[in-house]
Write a structure and sequence with these properties.
single chain, about 80 residues, mainly alpha, elongated
């Protein structure tokens, strides 16, 4: 059973976390390059938020948005 858990440890520490270890060592050379994953996530979230706000404006302009507070039974 000990070998099973050591195998899991080897998988995560030496294989799956290797790219993150590379980014951690890269931080001493370039902060922006080391945080590329964060920049990608921020760009995705910002674009999703812009899309969502545009869709809200479309529904508001068409008058199809239901703003009635009794739309849900728990709000009565």
């Amino acid at each position: 059973m000990k070998a099973f858990f050591e195998g899991i440890q080897y998988l995560f520490v030496n294989i799956l976390f290797a790219p993150l270890d590379f980014l951690r060592s890269l931080e001493l050379k370039s902060w922006f390059a080391a945080n590329t994953i964060n920049w990608i996530f921020m760009i995705i979230c910002a674009s999703a938020m812009v899309y969502w706000i545009k869709q809200l404006k479309i529904f508001e302009a068409n008058g199809t948005e239901n703003q009635d507070t009794t739309a849900h039974s728990f709000l009565k």
